[in-house]
Amino acid sequence: MERLTFSLRRQLILVSVLLLSLPWAGCQFIREMEGALRHGQEQALQATAEAVAAVIGARQELIYPDPARIVTREDPRPSVYALPAQHYISVDGYADGWEDIAEYTLSNPDLTAPLALSYRALTRGNSLFLLLKVQDPEVIYHNPGLSREPNGDRLILRTWRDGRRQEYVIATAAPGSVRAQAAGRRLRGIDPGRIAGFWQDARGGYTLELEIPLSYTGERLGFYVINTGARASGPVETLGNVSPLETRAPPWLIYSSDALQTALAPFAHGGRKIEVSDNQRWRVGELAPAASDASIPDTFWLLRLIYRSVLAETDLPSPPVAAQAGKMAGPGVAGALAGNPGSYRYRATGSSTHTLLSAAAPIRHQGQVIGSVLVSESGEQYLSLTDQAFSRLLGYSLFAIGLGALGLLGYASVLSLRIRRLSQAASRVIAPDGSISGAFPASGAADEIGELSRHYAALLEKLREYNDYLRTLSRKLSHELRTPIAIIQTSLENLEQEHQPDQAVYVNRARDGLDRLRRILDAMSEASRLEESIRSNPLILLDLVPLLQEVHKAYQAVYPQYAIGLAVDTVQARINGVPELIIQALDKLMDNAVSFSEPGAPITLSLGGKQGGWELAVSNVGPTLSPALAQSMFDPMVSQRASAGDTVHLGLGLHVVRLICEYHQGRVTASNLVNPPGVTVHMWFPRATSTT
Fold first, then answer.
1. Count of CB atoms within 10 A of residue 57's CB?
2. Which of 320, 413, 452, 483 could cysteine-pair with 330, CB 3.0–4.6 Å?
3. Do the Cβ atoms of 179 and 193 come closer than 8 Å?
4. 207: pLDDT confidence band, cut at 50, 70 and 90?
């Protein structure tokens, strides 16, 4: 019956996917929750904007104290825009307290004199405050001796009351407090002296700070400075937002009325900011965000950072900034003035993770759009409410991931135990001498480990059969060779019985040849088996340093009558090789060195780096090599021994060393020593590049 395989890879992938689904589901839940909160926040802001628009639309005078400004086309002349003052204004002619107020500059390059005028405006209560800075390199003060009418450099203020122009002149004979004088017919109930202030000298000109009753302006304000020369007959030049000869009404005075601020006050909530504009985008009302709610619980900063990073959107635009101070910009205001409410999201200024939500609504009066309302709020106001929920979600996710990790650890432990049992079974089956004893337990599991166990069992069974064949091969070979040897031996015995002259010499030679033939057959069998074993060994990552240190100790014990030394000039020497073959090559070289050395002579094992690889050498003191033999000594059947004795030396030992070096992608050479004379055999191996 065919087994159903369920691979370990599929099992691990399945478990990993289950774990990965937890943080993914958590992130999706967070995004859904954040989306729902954001939608609710947008709806709340939109409802607030529409409520504010409805309140203001019912009372158009909150935006337009003069209803005529609703239908007036945009005036090309600069209007005077005044912000509501947040603190008391001290009228002293200095710019203290005006640092945060936008400054408007007027200049005319066609003028003869380098004249420039900048102004700022504030409202507080029923008063309008003006700060004017005039750049005039030559200031001419009023000279009462010339005329009672103001002369010299002076300022003209122009207002509009009951459809009539009202002008006031401010001049002074010296720096100090000033009061306005009527520059023409004035209406009843108006006291020009209530327009008062200070005139102060400044570097390159002078500064005027004035307080004007708002009721005197009639919602319009124009001004210009008159610059006179040092001579009475010199040219007189003017600069301002109106010209002296104009008869039409001056530009509008735009400011936030106290009534509008009072109407906005009930809508103050948390961190919301409410802005109101007229139909020309002038900001006529603003309610700054209130203090944040201290009852919102704070969250650990790391959790808050992770939460904000998950929800961060880097493609959000920055909040729009108007090109002209006092005006409002952005698609929200433009859409509201076109009659279309909407919600918008921006990236908070100075932050990469915080967002700013805004909602715009049109202000309608009798079906006509007369302005817009923009309500803004930081996304933190609502996201902070989800911090505790996110903390709990993170805790649950960590618990689930930890539980899954424990499951994986247990599963991995089971796999490790199975692999360890497989390894122990293989160790018990294979004996130290390489023979296979006992039966390998094959697993019946339907995964890769079970399949590997069955493959091991089949492989070991084949190896057992092969080893049995090798063990019987020598007996079979001996049986085949014994017959011709017996024939030779029988012939020699017959020859001995005939008692012919010199028969003993021939008999001895025949016997010696017979013994040598037997030893040659044994040596050839050994060499053949060695060549086959070299090709069947896989390469592994091997460090020659500890290997050489270990065999050095063994050689000292095996050859105690020789002074065997060790010279290693590296800490680590890694190659891709077979330890048993390297040791076998060293054994051949050591046997060769001992054979050509006298007892007590030094024999040195050395290891060092050379030509991008490692050189392993064996040196001995004794006879040197002839040039011809140095080239051919590693070929088979080559030997330099003068007397072989009873031992057969076929010249296969060094040939085996060359086979081992070539199998390791290396080479072997020999060289003579000079003082003292001797021979060094060098084995070079390439450095290991990867684990094989």
1. 22
2. 320
3. yes
4. very high
CB 440 within 8 A of CB 460: yes
Q: Which helix (H) or strand (E) holds 176?
A: strand 176-179
Query: d(Cα 158, Cα 252) in Å, to the nearest integer?
Result: 11
225 plus 315 within the same structural domain: no
500 in any annotated domain: yes
Task: Report phi then psi at 399, rounded to 5.
Answer: -65, -45
Residue 414 counted as domain residue: no
Q: Which whole-number Å values give the CA distances from 609 to 268, 297, 671, in the listed order?
A: 82, 68, 18
> Which of 641, 639, 671, 673 has the alpha carbon at shortest distance from 655?
639
User: Which whole-number Å values give the CA distances from 684 to 279, 555, 579, 680, in the listed order?
Assistant: 92, 21, 15, 13
Q: Where are the alpha helices (DSSP H) in 92-226?
A: 214-217
Look-up of token digits 């400011």:
255
Tell me, yes or no, whether 250 lies in a domain: yes
Hey, how many other C-beta atoms are within 10 angstroms of the C-beta on 303?
15
The one-letter amino acid at 425: A
Q: CA torsion sign, 662 to 663 to 666 to 668?
A: negative
- Rg for the chain (alpha carbons), in Å? 54
The residue ranking higher by pLDDT, 113 or 281, is 281
CA 543 to CA 574: how far, in whole Å?
A: 4
pLDDT tens, position by position, 532-561: 667 777 889 999 999 999 989 888 888 889
Distance (Å, whole) CA 142 – CA 170: 10
pLDDT the model gives residue 461: 79
pTM for the model: 0.56
For residue 619, the cross-strand partners are 604, 680
Give, in degrees to the nearest 5, the angle at Cα 123 between 243 and 87. 140
- The phi, psi pair for 130, rounded to 5°, reads -120, 140
Give the tokens for residue 6.
């369920």
- Within 288-434, strands assigned E span 342-347, 355-365, 368-378
Q: Is residue 237 classed exposed, middle or buried when 0-12, 13-18 and 19+ CB atoms within 10 A define those classes? A: middle
**Tokens at residue 458, please?**
């089949």
Q: Considering Cα of 251, then 256, then 259, then 264, what sign does the dihedral take? A: positive
354 and 306 housed in the same domain: yes
Written as one string, the DSSP assignment of 409-425 is HHHHHHHHHHHHHHHHH
Asked if residue 287 is part of any domain, the answer here is: yes
Q: Is the peptide bond before 266 cis (omega within 30 degrees of 0)?
A: no
231: buried, middle or exposed (CB in 10 Å: 19+, 13-18, 0-12)?
exposed
Q: Are 64 and 70 in contact (CB under 8 A)?
A: yes
Which tokens is 306 given? 């992770």
Structure-derived torsion over alpha carbons of residues 182, 183, 187, 189, reported in degrees to the nearest 10: -10
> What kind and span of H or E run contains 505?
helix 503-535
- Nearest to 273, CA basis, from 373, 404, 408: 373
Q: Which domain holds residue 518?
A: 448-531
544 shares a domain with 502: no
The H or E element containing residue 33 is helix 8-57
Q: β-pairing, 181-182 with 154-161?
A: unpaired
Closest by alpha carbon to 104, among 197, 239, 249?
239
678 and 547 fall within a common domain: yes
Residues in the chain: 692
The total number of structural domains in the chain stands at 4
Residue 2 has pLDDT above 50, yes or no: no
β pairing state of 342-347 and 563-568: unpaired
- Own/partner contacts of 530-533, CB < 8 Å, gap of 24 or more, are 530/584, 530/656, 530/659, 531/656, 531/659
**Does residue 266 share a domain with residue 249?**
no
